[in-house]
Specification:
Blueprint lengths: L2 H22 L4 H18 L9 H23 L2 H5 L15 H8 L3 H12 L4 H8 L3 H20 L2
Helix pairs in contact: 1-2, 1-3, 2-3, 3-7, 5-8, 6-8, 7-8
């Protein structure tokens, strides 16, 4: 991929990528922006190595998803168990007025794999095959994640 092709992808996908990460981070705008910035830098530095024919946007979302997983893995390793148990709902303080807060709260309760499948399928409109490529699992695994995620979201939002 040339630098010009990369710039074109970023021009069209940057805001959508940020919305995807904002939803993946359950409304935590600072975390989503940090991950987006890191993902864009990593993508830029490796765009000359990208040789696949197909959607460059899926490649970009894969990088962003992997950055999200890495960030959460590092954060969990650094947090003591007491902090996890006593966690307050402060991650939503900056976005209290955000109209999708109930959805973010419900999404936060889903495991990251289910949350990612739901967001890529419904927010971005990726096919099951494309999602499987982005998150590096089988299509059957994506179907299961979507099914479980939908069921959990229905239950969580119904109780809202």
């Amino acid at each position: 991929m040339t630098r010009e092709q990369f710039i074109e992808i970023i021009k069209t996908e940057q805001e959508a990528l940020r919305r995807f990460l904002l939803a993946l981070c359950c409304g935590n705008r600072d975390e989503a922006d940090d991950i987006a910035q890191d993902a864009l830098v990593k993508a830029y530095l490796s765009c000359s190595k990208y040789k696949e024919c197909g959607k460059g946007t899926a490649w970009l979302y894969r990088i962003a998803y992997n950055m999200f997983i890495d960030t959460n893995r590092c954060r969990r390793a650094m947090q003591p168990l007491d902090a996890l148990e006593k966690r307050e709902d402060s991650s939503f303080a900056a976005d209290r007025e955000f109209r999708y807060q109930a959805l973010y709260i419900a999404l936060e309760q889903l495991p990251p794999k289910e949350r990612t499948a739901i967001l890529l399928f419904y927010l971005k409109g990726y096919s099951i095959r494309e999602i499987a490529d982005i998150v590096n699992v089988t299509e059957d695994a994506v179907k299961k994640q979507l099914s479980r995620g939908r069921d959990k979201l229905k239950t969580l939002l119904k109780n809202e």
